[in-house]
Amino acid sequence: MKVKPIAADRLHALLRAMPKAELHMHIEGSLEPELIFALAARNRMDFPYPDVDALRRAYVFDNLQSFLDIYHAGTQVLRTEQDFYDMARAYLVRAHADNVLHAEIFFDTQTHTGHGTDAGVVIRGLHRACVDAAAEFGMSASLILCFLRHLNEQAAFECLEQAMPYREKLVGIGLASSELGHPPEKFARVFARCRELGFRLVAHAGEEGPPAYIWSALDVLKVERIDHGVQAMNDPALMQRLVQDRIPLTVCPLSNLKLCVFPTLAQHNLGRLLDAGIVATVNSDDPAYFGGYINENFAQTFAALGLSAQQAWQLAHNSFEASFIDSGLRRRYQDRLQYTFETFS
Ligand code: HPA
Ligand code: ZN
Predict the structure, then answer these.
(1) Residue 269 C-alpha to ligand 1 middle, in angstroms?
(2) Per-residue pLDDT tens listing for the chain (345 residues)
(3) Which of 310, 302, 176 is nearest to 250 (CA)?
(4) In DSSP terms, which residues pair with 205 in a beta bridge?
C-alpha cells in the first residue's frame, strides 16, 4: 500500500491507533513491580527489595545478563495457576489498549519448575488468559515455549517432555536467556524433535551474539523467524539471505537501548533494516523492565529515527505477515490495517 506522508503529531496518533501484532514479548517480563509485590503478599513470600520504587530504581542494566539476573528474581513470586493467569491477563489488557490484535507470547517453564512449580500450572494459567482475551476483546493470542539456553540440551528435552500433555495449547518453540557462549547449535537435536512434532520454531539470535548465531539458528535449528537479529547488519551475505527468504526479525528497540545493544535510539538500525528490505517488526520484549509497551516502542523509535507513515504501515503489515495465524485471519487483520490507514486523517 502506498501511504501519503502526514504531520508528526498525526503520525503519533496513527502509530497508536494502527492494528498490529506483537510477536516478541516474554510474559514474565511484563510483571510490573506492583504486581510482583501483590503476588509476593498473596503467596506470603519475602521479596528482596523494600518497595516498588526501590525495585524500579534497580532497573538499570549494562547488558543482557545484568537484566536476566533481576528478571529471574521477579519470577520467584509466581507460584499458582492464578498467578500466571493474572500476569498474562494484565499484559493482554495492556496490549489490547495498544491496538494489538494478535500476540504471540513467550514464556518458559524451566525457571518455574526450578522453583518447584509444575509446568502444567504455568501453561494452564497462561492459556486460560489467552482464551478469555479472545472472548472478551476479540483479540487472538498464542503461546511459544522458550528453552533456556544457559541450561543444557538434556534439560530442554525434559522441558519438552513435561509440556507434551499441553501440546495443543502451544503454537511454537523458542530459545531465550543468555546468548553469548550458548550458540543455537547446542539445541540442534531438541529443535529437530520439535520440528517433527509440528511446532513452529523461532530463536533469539544476534541480539548480543554474532551473525554466526543467526546463520545457525536458520540452518541448524531451521527456525522461521529470528528474535532480535539486529547484528545481521554486520554480514551482507546474511542480509541477502534474510531478504530473499523473507525471514522476519522481531526487533525490540527499547530493549536494545536498555541493554546497551545501541548507545542511543537515534543509532538504532531499524530504519536501515527496513530500507534493506528486511521483514522487520517492532516489539516490547520485557515491557515492565525496558520502559514501555509496544506503542511506546513505536513512538520513541519513530521520534528518534524520523521514520515515516509508510514505514509505520510496513512494520504493522510485517507483524501480521510474520505471525503464525492462519491465512484467513491474517487477511482480516491486514484489511483492518488498510482501512485504518485509508480513513485516518
Ligand atoms: N533476550 C534473551 N532472553 C530473554 C530476553 C531477551 O531479551 N528477555 C527475556 N529473556
Ligand atoms: Zn526476548
Answers:
(1) 19
(2) 999 999 999 999 999 999 999 999 999 999 999 999 999 999 999 999 999 999 999 999 999 999 999 999 999 999 999 999 999 999 999 999 999 999 999 999 999 999 999 999 999 999 999 999 999 999 999 999 999 999 999 999 999 999 999 999 999 999 999 999 999 999 999 999 999 999 999 999 999 999 999 999 999 999 999 999 999 999 999 999 999 999 999 999 999 999 999 999 999 999 999 999 999 999 999 999 999 999 999 999 999 999 999 999 999 999 999 999 999 999 999 999 999 999 997
(3) 176
(4) 228
Domains of the chain, residue spans:
8-344
Give yes or no for residue 258 CB within 6 A of ligand 1.
no
Q: How far apart are CA 183 and CA 204, in angstroms?
A: 10
Residues 91, 27 contacting (CB under 8 angstroms):
yes
Vertex 63 angle, CA 48 and 232, to 5°? 145
> Distance between the two ends of the chain, CA-based, in angstroms?
16
The single-letter code of the amino acid at 126 is L
* Ligand 1 pocket check for 207: Cβ under 6 Å: yes
Topology of domain 8-344 in CATH is TIM Barrel (3.20.20)
Tell me, yes or no, if 224 is annotated catalytic. no
Tell me the three cell numbers of residue 200. 513452529
pTM equals 0.98
Q: Please give the grid coordinates belonging to residue 270.
A: 531499524
Catalytic residue of the set 22, 179, 207, 208: 207
- Is any atom of ligand 1 closer than 6 Å to the C-beta of 26? yes
Length of the chain: 345
Please check whether residue 84 is in contact with residue 130, taking contact to mean a CB–CB distance below 8 angstroms. no
Contact 143, 170 (CB under 8 A): yes
